[in-house]
Amino acid sequence: MSGLALAGMSVPGFASALAPGRDKAPLPLFSVLYDNGFPPSAAFGAAAGQLGYATHDIDGDVTEFWMNHLATRWRHEPVAIAGLTHASALFVLERMGWDHGLRVIFRAQHRSQGNGRIEHQLTGPAVMLNAFEKAASEHPGLGACVADMLSRCHRPEQTPSTLAITAPPRPELDAAPGHAPLVSWVIAPRPSPASARNAFATVERTV
């Protein structure tokens, strides 16, 4: 089965797990973070803003966002946030979230392979992986792809799956080889205990 490897679930079973719940609203986000120092991240911020999300440019450092916006809010309510940033920003926010009952529910590393090709390594609920894969097939730019993925996702009730996608060369791709890989992510309240009963699946795909 060229280009497709599955573990722990049949193809029909995995497809069923990927299907988003039609009766659920998109996952609400308190803020969407981007970094204007990285062109794909800046494009993500612009696209997320056009979709109606409240956005915040961290400008290389999450300290101002944490001190002036997020710390007080998380003390009152564990609201979800998302971003396309460098890995160090996620590292800080993930650990701060632990103290408030939040976890990283979706994580994707995006690494340029050269010649317009980009590799995405994703971990998260199957419904979010499906949303990313669909968005990646419709948007050549990473920023627009990640923003569109967020608009398709509802609050997950599934245990994490993994998905690897290597996109074909696209001359308009907004990432350059040799740059540090960016990470897209969603931090949200910890999933319910019932989610532990769901199956775990691993998929690797070239699209």
Tags for this entry?
single chain, 207 residues, alpha/beta, 9-stranded mixed β-sheet, disordered N terminus
SSE string, helix = H, strand = E?
EHEHEHEHEEHHEEE
The number of helical runs is 6
Rg (CA only): 16 Å
Largest sheet: 9 strands, mixed
Strand percentage: 25-35%
Low-pLDDT parts are 1-23, 195-207
What is the helix fraction of residues, given as a range? Answer: 25-40%
Class by SSE composition: alpha/beta
Secondary structure layout:
Layout: E1 4-7, H1 11-18, E2 31-34, H2 39-50, E3 55-57, H3 63-76, E4 81-85, H4 87-98, E5 102-114, E6 117-124, H5 126-138, H6 142-151, E7 161-166, E8 182-189, E9 202-206
Parallel strand pairs: 2-3, 2-4, 7-9
Antiparallel strand pairs: 1-9, 4-8, 5-6, 5-8, 6-7
Helix pairs in contact: 2-6, 5-6
